[in-house]
Specification:
36% of the residues lie in helices and 17% in strands. It is an alpha/beta fold and 380 residues long. The strands form 4 sheets. The protein has a 7-stranded mixed beta sheet with strand order 2-8-7-6-5-3-4, with helices on both faces. The chain has a 4-stranded antiparallel beta sheet with strand order 11-12-15-14. A two-stranded parallel ribbon has the order 1-13.
Length: 380
């Protein structure tokens, strides 16, 4: 095998030529800052940002581009949501509130709330799982905040987000619902209106966009009075004086209120091309089914995922996952090994880590044949 076979798209997707060209053309021919100038070039960049925001809104079924906030990624978005909803100034503190998380959660979805529990005494409860390790809507605990992983990066099964949110609201109509869609967005159409979620996050790089860019959807941006970060571009006015140290601040409307400082302009400019690409080129999950069928024939391999999952995750008897990943890497096969920043689901499964194969639109069945042969040869 003399070429790279990239099977780690769940960590980050390879970039289509359309994204690369769009960003290079912008950097070379029309770069300027956004929201800072009045020259023709700067105004043209503002238009491109506005068009990209509308593209994202349409992509996820949002009512308005004003509901779309650009972040640096899912991790940034999830942490920022906590700060937005935990606002003591507006009597929105999460002190003594109940947060529902699950064992499917990525660290970025659950850790912010786990850490918060230690500082303000909020309560953490777990969303129940069914026998297939899917989030179960029956017998949901009552909660004030519900964090939902729309698709586990270890198990790769889409969750019924709309039903889960509906069930949670039957227990508490005012529950704040937060969806981590970082893996889901690659394989399924997001409809935030159907989900009826309050917040949703995903990262551009998962679908072929650039790194350093994410999306935070806010259903009702006007509800959240105080921004969570401060800087240029989000201040409408400052009144008062330094004599008595009495200042009053007026914030811009959303989304500017939540976008302090210079945006990741180049990444945003390239993002519409990534959206066009993924809508036409979803990963071929027949490749995953083939891997599942073939690898399950090897008695040394225990497959964790279902056949119709979006991933093929497994462990190898008598071999550490890092050793196995390193051996594949020698032959140019790139896979993910470890706990995938999802410690809780690995604890639930009773394992330290796993080996994950994920495919992108660029992968072929011929590559799967090569990988299966290579794995079987390694395990002889």
């Amino acid at each position: 095998m003399n070429k790279i076979i990239y099977l780690d798209s769940a960590a980050s997707a390879l970039k289509p030529e359309s994204v690369i060209k769009t960003e290079m053309d912008f950097l070379r021919d029309s770069y300027a800052n956004a929201g800072r100038g009045v020259c023709a070039r700067a105004l043209a960049v503002d238009d491109k940002i506005a068009n990209a925001r509308k593209k994202v809104a349409d992509f996820i079924g949002a009512k308005s581009p004003e509901q779309i906030v650009f972040t640096s990624g899912t991790t940034d978005g999830m942490n920022r949501i906590l700060r937005i909803i935990n606002d003591p100034v507006c009597d929105d503190s999460l002190k003594n509130k109940t947060i529902m998380v699950s064992d499917l959660d990525h660290h970025s979805a659950r850790l912010p709330f786990e850490v918060l529990r230690n500082s303000i005494a909020c309560k953490i409860v777990l969303c129940p799982l069914d026998s297939q390790y899917n989030l179960a809507d029956a017998d949901l605990p009552k909660s004030d905040v519900f964090v939902i992983t729309a698709m586990s990066n270890v198990l790769g099964m889409p969750q019924d987000v709309a039903t889960l949110i509906s069930a949670a609201r039957k227990k508490n109509p005012d529950v704040i619902t937060i969806v981590d869609a970082a893996q889901f967005v690659v394989h399924k159409k997001i409809d935030v209106q159907k989900w009826n979620c309050d917040f949703m996050c995903f990262s551009a790089h998962k679908i072929g966009g650039d790194t350093g860019l994410g999306v935070m959807y806010i259903k009702n941006p006007d509800r959240w009075i105080s921004p969570d970060k401060f800087g240029g571009g989000m201040v409408a006015g400052i009144t008062g004086n330094a004599v008595n140290n009495n200042y009053s601040f007026q914030w811009e409307n959303a989304p500017s209120k939540f976008e302090a400082g210079t945006l990741p302009i180049t990444q945003i400019i390239g993002f519409p091309a990534a959206i066009d690409y993924i809508e036409k080129n979803r990963p071929n999950l027949e490749l995953i089914k083939y891997l599942h069928d073939e690898l399950s024939k090897n008695k040394k391999i225990k497959i964790i995922t279902e056949r119709d999952a979006t991933l093929c995750t497994f462990v190898v008897e008598g071999m550490h996952v890092l050793d196995f990943g390193a051996m594949l890497g020698v032959y140019g096969v790139c896979v993910r090994v470890g706990n995938m920043c999802a410690t809780w689901v690995h604890k639930l499964l009773g394992i330290q880590g796993s080996i994950r194969i994920s495919v992108g639109p660029w992968n072929t069945m011929d590559e799967m044949h090569q990988v299966v042969d290579l794995i079987n040869n390694i395990l002889k």
